[in-house]
Model the fold of this input.
Amino acid sequence: MKKIHVSTTVNGENVEYLCDPRETVLDVLRDRLNLTGAKEGCGTGDCGACSVTVDDRLVCSCLMLGVEAEGKNIATVEGMATGEKLHPLQKKFIEYAALQCGICTPGILVAAKSLLEKNPDPTETEVRYWLAGNLCRCTGYDKIIRAVMDTAADMREAS
Amino acid sequence: MQYHSPTSFEDAAALAAEATGVTRFLAGGTDVLVQLRADITTPDTLIDIKKIPNVQAISRSDDGGWTIGVAVSGAEMREHKELGQDWPGLVEAMDLIGSTQVQGRATLVGNLCNGSPAADSVPAMVAAGASVSVTGPQGTRQVPVADIPVSPGRTSLVQGEVISAVHIPARGSNAGDAYLRFIPRTEMDIAVVGCAINVELDSNGIITQARVSLGAVAPTVLLVPEAADAIIGSALDDGALDKLAKAASAACNPISDKRGTVEFRTHVAGVLAKRAAKIAYARAQGENT
Ligand SMILES: Cc1cc2nc3c(=O)[nH]c(=O)nc-3n(C[C@H](O)[C@H](O)[C@H](O)COP(=O)(O)OP(=O)(O)OC[C@H]3O[C@@H](n4cnc5c(N)ncnc54)[C@H](O)[C@@H]3O)c2cc1C
Ligand code: FES
Ligand code: FES
Done:
């Protein structure tokens, strides 16, 4: 199969890769770029473990082809911390123990960050609906929702 | 699988016309990629339409109608205030599709051409009287949305044809639309029944025009003129609502599956029609519901 050359931006860095047209952005991130934060839970858009943003739009990386990333700006969980300094959401997830096995966590962090960028003061209902496409089999969601709400409150105070 | 990203609809149509084997267009990919990943359909030719100029645009035409580009996502429609003021039912129908992540990619035309009888945006487009531009080897023609689906998974488009825009008519005054679906959960599920209603009133609150469309109760989305006739000429009194519900139920020809039986779907179609009519009517009277 003929491979296609793609140049794109991932977490602010220019990257280039050759990929088969059937490969998804998730395949490319994990297998070609060694960014294994985004996880494959289902591969069919149902679980959100593969969530990334593309040009600031939250998407499932399992439902986008690697070739479609040409010229785009992709952000993954690996880009959330600044060096050793964790993003406020990451800190709060630890504080609230909003994760157990952690497989859903990168997707939920990326999704929650994208929500707070659009809406710094969401209601609990808004948070729950925004994250409805991120499944978690461990936590029962409550700690996740509280961690997001509390981060939002902190970030509003800090700004 | 051959991947193409043409920069005009004419090129996209020509690529499709020449292709052999299974061809798919790639809009948001939320159906195409699921089918690819699940080994249901692996296209031989995949034609990405997102590199074509203006496919991401929502614009108001001179007559007050709307043209929605074929790559506009649900999230972009939801963020477009004026479109939502004119056609809240259409926007809420699209917004019901999938999660935030799916909203970031899913399109009206993908929803239409995937051909699911339960596609949420399709009843809303049909009730709105929407049409699509279809570009093919013979040029471009305009086709009512209601004429696109022919059976589950099949459309009336022939090889070499691609949809190049969605057209929503001018809203007009004293008019409103609404879409409701029944699902057993609160989010992330497929409609057991969907119902879209679009009404226009005169200055006395009498319905002068109506369109009623049902999803998930027949092999294709239905336009139900009998249901519209039941409320035209009324101010949506209880008698008219009962006739509407009866006509909506009578139009159903559903299947039984794990989501609902024939009897349940038939009954719920009537219930949703009443509820959607009340919302559309209130919106037509200028209420913000
Ligand atoms: C998790 C999840 C939840 C979902 N929930 C819902 C739901 O609640 N309700 C619902 O209705 N759907 C749902 N869907 C299905 C899907 O998201 C929608 O049908 C969506 O609108 C498809 O749009 P798309 O742009 O992603 O289409 P694509 O996958 O890009 O294309 C779909 C089909 O349309 C054809 N097509 C695309 N563009 C054109 C064009 N310009 N001309 C001709 N043909 C074209 C393609 O060839 C293909 O056959 C869900 C999907 C997922 C993954
Ligand atoms: S792996 Fe992408 S949504 Fe589950
Ligand atoms: S922490 Fe295990 S799935 Fe969420």
Summary: The pocket of FE2/S2 (inorganic) cluster (ligand 2) is lined by residues A 40-43, 45-50, 60, 62 (CB under 6 Å). Residues 81 and 87 of chain A are 5 Å apart (CA to CA).
